[in-house]
DNA sequence: CGGGATCCAGAACGATACTG
DNA sequence: CAGTATCGTTCTGGATCCCG
């Protein structure tokens, strides 16, 4: 077979949405999971539900502000749910929704690709960056 | 089966990279394809090689600046190659590299998920946004 | 035609301090 | 514990003009 386009990546899908960021499903999803912390948070929630401070512990580099914001984004899109236990002090648990679980396989596919091909990408970058700028001596 | 984590999404993959954006494969890949135009450009190149102006025609919303920048990024990462034909005026063709082709299936998986679940996400957002802010009357 | 250079607005993000 | 509020910085992307 020569030059087949994988299903789901056809150009017409984007064109149907008219490139409008509000209407384009791909841009909406990429804007969410392409941000700095969502994919990582998703993966942390994939194993099991986690409390806020637990997430913060296992993702040390994230600030509370960004963790909150990331979780709100997931909650807003219906990918995760938030459960408050009125203990003292309060504890809040986040868990993936059924919808949220369905994104794990496709996301995992991309993650696997990244892990597998990153060495080659790094080499490509090194080569590219070492190239003399056009006209350079 | 209860609560299995899909392969390739395990938390330890991130932890192994120490969350360092420079070293983390997932962040590197997501930073690239998560940007505003890369996924769309990739999809445009999936069908067949395209010339610069051709890409610009079929993705009208992108500026020349961003199209150039996006293509440079793909080239740098070894996902696409650039071929200059010294005609007059010059014409430049871009095409996916073998490595670039391998990203299409996983990316396509995510695109398909986006297309399929965007309606539900929109409903979730509408519900979330309609919720009274905590403490609102 | 296929860019590069410059400028600028807005968004994303980090650090810090405060709160129920 | 689980946030919110505020501030400052950095990064992204759009507009415009110029060039071979």
Shape of chain A: globular
| Secondary-structure-derived class of chain A | mainly alpha
Strand order of the largest sheet of chain A: 1-3-2
Number of strands of chain A: 3
Largest interface: A-B, 65 and 64 residues
The fraction of residues assigned to DSSP E strands of chain A is 5-15%
Summarize this entry quickly:
The structure is a homodimer of 137-residue chains. With 137 residues, chain A is mainly alpha-helical. The first copy, chain A, is built from seven helices and three strands; from the N terminus they run αααβααββαα.
Question: Which helices and strands occur, and which strands form pairs?
Answer:
The structure is a homodimer of 137-residue chains.
Chain A: H1 11-17, H2 25-33, H3 38-47, E1 50-51, H4 52-58, H5 64-76, E2 80-85, E3 91-96, H6 98-102, H7 104-130
Antiparallel strand pairs in A: 1-3, 2-3
Chain B binds a DNA duplex (20 and 20 nucleotides) through residues 35-37, 51-53, 56, 63-69, 84, 87-92.
Keywords (chains A, B): DNA-binding, Transcription, Transcription regulation
Domain HTH hxlR-type (chains A, B): 24-122
Protein name (chains A, B): Transcriptional regulator
